[in-house]
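How a chain folds remains the central question behind the approach discussed here. This step matters because it turns folding into a mapping between discrete strings. The sequence in question and its structure tokens are set out directly beneath this paragraph.
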Amino acid sequence: QVQLVESGGGLVQPGGSLRLSCAASGITFNIYRMGWYRQAPGKQRELVATITRSTNSKYADSVKGRFTISRDNGKNTVYLQMNSLKPEDTAVYYCKGNSEVPGGYDYWGQGTQVTVSS
């Protein structure tokens, strides 16, 4: 059974930091491109950051310089370090795994709420 379980969300003041984690089980983690997406109320889900199995990373323009994605293949976990948080970063954050092997499946986590407010 495949599971992606996010943790680390919560309420933080503007300018603060949070670190999200996504622990994967039931997949061969090191062949997956991992990503973080977010969805704010009334908006479409959007890409935040991705990291390939060779640790190449990409970021949305809105988070460049503030967020850092990383992975620990030994722990089957991907992280999102979020600094200098803004109210517009408020959203449910989802973890996604995309297989980099043809024919593989993609998986989503259930999401974790991040609220940036004073």
